[in-house]
Amino acid sequence: MIRECFIEDAAEICRIYNYYVENTTITFEEEPLAPSEIEKRISNIQSKGHPWLVYEENLQIIGYAYASEFKSRCAYKYTLETSFYLSHEHLSKGIGTKLYTKLIDECRKIGMHSLVGVIAVPNIPSASICKKFGFQKAGIIKEAGFKFNKWIDIEYWQLIL
């Protein structure tokens, strides 16, 4: 079931996210986060009226998606950056598609015009889901990050709603 995220979900979200922090280059964070940091992020995003959703199965959160401020300048107010993470034990089960469907719908409901996905490459699953929903590759920034002793490019993907 997909539902709105609550502050009390922070520990489970932290568990999902920290796997990617410690084991992959799809996030540029290098140190695991504490649940208190996730609580701040949830509160910050939701206080702006932006969606943060979780996918829950058998009372366990196995994925989440949110849309956050793309840039802080006022003229960007109708553009949000989308993110989603799934428990690494629950990949390729259609959960990402369900979460992204609901996230995009919620962004439309709040009057957004443009969504941007920022993907560290390679990340075939994220690029695939962007393509599935009609996002277009808008650009690439070479060697934007450095993690695990290697340079990482990022791609920008955009969907006009």
Count of helical segments?
A: 4
Helix content: 25-40%
- Give the domain tally: 1
End-to-end span in angstroms? 25 Å
> What is the averaged pLDDT score?
95
The parts where pLDDT drops under 50 for at least 5 residues are: none
* Major sheet summary line: 7 strands, mixed
Which strand order do you get reading across the main beta sheet?
1-2-3-4-5-7-6
Classified by CATH, the class is Alpha Beta
Task: Label the structural class.
Answer: alpha+beta
How large is the radius of gyration?
15 Å
Q: Name the beta content range.
A: 35-45%
Q: What coarse outline follows from CA principal-axis ratios?
A: globular
SSE order, one letter for each helix or strand: EHHEEEHEHEE
| Quaternary assembly | single chain
Under CATH, the topology can be stated as Aminopeptidase
Q: Provide the CATH architecture.
A: 3-Layer(aba) Sandwich
Number of strands: 7
The CATH homologous superfamily is named Gcn5-related N-acetyltransferase (GNAT)
How would you characterize the overall build of this protein?
Helix content is about 30%, strand content about 35%. It has a seven-stranded mixed sheet, with helices on both faces. The chain has four helices and seven strands, in the order βααβββαβαββ. The protein is globular and about 40 Å long. The longest helix is centred in the middle third of the chain and has 15 residues, at about 95-110. The chain has about 160 residues and is an alpha+beta fold. The chain has helices at about 10-25, 35-45, 95-110, 125-130, and strands at about 1-5, 50-55, 60-70, 80-85, 115-120, 135-145, 150-160.
